[in-house]
Design brief:
alpha+beta; 43% helix; two-stranded antiparallel ribbon; single chain; four-stranded mixed β-sheet; 226 residues
């Protein structure tokens, strides 16, 4: 296994670009990255594992959606720094619910295919909202509140987070349950905008919360002082 892994020129970069192609149609489904550990897992299991730059961890393709990729072949390019894998794709490859990630025509900006499944049903509302916010970065600020927020910069985004936190606090103080739910939704949205502005995936928040399981609040606070 080590001999195979060493065929990659890891000195050029720690993350290996991987082009993913449908084994039957040869359609390009997506492009992702593997570090050495992800490549080793993929070679051993013949199931695609990647390193997510936004999540900052290894992830098995389809771990949330069930839309896994079974790998049939690994081919490295002539410079030993890019990989082409051919896969059988269960379900769809793209988080938008489309078969391929390459569905937007560059010059016109128009989508060339429709979603086949609901991304919200696959990934849940938080991850879907985060990806939608990311997509709004390139939208016209006059047509999108999200794009307008992002275009105005950090101070405006932070002001909205503080404002929504305050409104939630007032609703809590008044014991107004419907208003608490409404303001909590507003606060969650604006926090996701702030995270998206810094390209921090909600998955990393989940990882931090998971780290705190089996750890007392006192121990967690003390750990920050190290």
């Amino acid at each position: 296994m080590q001999e195979i892994l060493n065929r990659v020129d890891w000195e050029k970069q720690e993350l290996l670009p991987v082009i993913v192609q449908d084994v039957e149609s040869n359609e390009v489904l997506m492009m992702a990255y593997m570090d050495k550990e992800a490549l080793e897992l993929s070679l051993k299991t013949k199931t695609a594992h990647y390193f997510s730059r936004s999540k900052q961890r290894i992830w098995k393709k389809g771990e949330s959606s069930g839309h896994i990729q079974t790998i049939h072949s690994f081919n490295i390019d002539c410079d030993n720094d890019t990989l082409l894998i051919k896969v059988t794709q269960e379900g769809v490859a793209c988080h938008t619910g489309r078969k391929s990630c390459f569905f937007t025509e560059l010059e016109s900006g128009e989508a060339t295919s429709e979603s086949e499944v609901s991304s919200e049903a696959i990934y849940g509302v938080i991850d879907t909202l985060y990806h939608t916010i990311q997509e709004r970065k390139n939208a016209d600020p006059s047509e999108s509140w999200t794009a307008k927020l992002l275009s105005k910069g950090d101070n405006t985004i932070l002001k909205k987070v503080v404002e929504e936190a305050g409104e939630f606090s007032f609703a809590y103080k008044d014991n107004d349950e419907p208003e608490m739910i409404y303001e909590a939704a507003d606060l969650t949205y604006h926090m996701l905008v702030a995270l998206a502005a810094k390209n921090i995936s909600p998955d990393r928040i989940k990882q931090e919360l998971a780290r705190r399981f089996n750890m007392s609040g006192i121990a967690e606070k003390n750990s920050r002082k190290d």
